[in-house]
Write a structure and sequence with these properties.
With 314 residues, the protein is an alpha+beta fold. It contains eleven helices and ten strands.
Length: 314
């Protein structure tokens, strides 16, 4: 008889009661939220109300993900990921299951949010994502598996949150989990080494995906194909200079990509060629002073956030 896989071992019906072996926490499973490479996540009800419960037979993967959540908690400001409630084991009818309970974050995923509210929100949400990534990268981590399903927009006001940390990897190591469409290795544009530029490539692909919701496959030269798709969409092409730099690995920090994206967002709509010329001209000019640049970026950020909060409340 074939041995049960982790997926069948962690599969339980709604109504199942999970009791922690070491801390005694009780969780009533309500429904399955999703599954990943090494476990299943359930919506459960426990002492903290609704919670997300991640189950796995792999204790090392559970420990690794818990360490990531602890690292998220150290990020300055509100945590970009779910807060950790507890970690424990459960002696289930199918054998020992390792689990951790975390905050249940409600809201649509990023693609659904954009579909509901319009593509004008894409730039604002990507700016917010870059701000979160900058803080995560400073803690020494790359998120790795950036895709709409792993990004929930909670609120109001709208705020991007990470919900699956299984792919989060220490800088310098090989990315643990990835999705081909958002992976630079698949497109032939870099390695799968965990570093800021890996996440920034995926961020550019997220931006493109908001304008091409139906995923497409690689054909020939991946870089040329992506640039052609950017230029073929008028509303997307205005962001071409920033997207191309991210795709080609020319950004080494999310902060720099955010600053240059904010400049394009502050511009009035013009022909893509005009954007390219003005962008190139601006890059050739010497900086007038880091303090002035910082103040401009901060003001642009405040204006953008004010606009999307106002729009959401209408």
């Amino acid at each position: 008889m074939m041995m049960n896989t982790w997926k069948t071992q962690c599969k339980f019906a709604s109504g199942t009661i999970v009791t922690g072996k070491w801390h005694g926490g009780r969780y009533h499973l309500l429904k399955e939220l999703g599954s990943g490479a090494n476990g299943i996540v359930y919506l459960a009800k426990g002492k903290n109300g609704h919670t997300a419960l991640k189950m796995s037979t792999d204790s090392l993967s559970i420990t690794s993900e818990v360490n990531v959540l602890k690292a998220f908690a150290k990020v300055q400001g509100a945590s970009p990921g779910p807060s950790l409630h507890e970690i424990d084991d459960w002696e289930s009818p199918k054998g020992r299951i390792h689990f951790y309970a975390m905050e249940y974050i409600q809201g649509p995923d990023l693609l659904t949010f954009i579909r509901r509210n319009g593509q004008t929100w894409t730039g604002v949400m990507i700016v917010q994502l870059l701000d979160v990534l900058e803080k995560l990268h400073r803690e020494g981590w790359a998120f790795g598996d950036l895709k709409p399903e792993n990004l929930i927009v909670s609120g109001p006001p709208p705020r991007i949150r990470f919900i699956d940390v299984g792919g989060t990897t220490l800088n310098g190591r090989a990315v643990k989990e990835f999705t081909e469409f958002f992976d630079r290795g698949y497109w032939g544009l870099g390695s799968r080494k965990a570093e800021p530029s890996y996440d920034l490539f995926s961020t550019a692909m997220l931006f493109i995906h908001m304008y091409y919701p139906k995923k497409f496959t690689k054909g020939g030269d991946g870089g040329k194909q992506l640039i052609q798709l950017i230029n073929a969409q008028s509303d997307l092409s205005r962001f071409g200079p920033v997207l191309q730099k991210a795709l080609m690995g020319k950004y080494h920090s999310a902060k720099k990509m955010k600053e240059e994206l904010l400049i394009l967002l502050s511009e009035k709509k013009e022909k893509p060629q005009s954007y390219a010329r003005r962008y190139s001209s601006r890059r050739r000019k010497k900086k007038s002073g880091s303090l002035t640049e910082t103040v401009i970026v901060l003001l642009l950020t405040l204006v953008l956030y004010a606009l999307y909060i106002y729009s959401y409340l209408l």
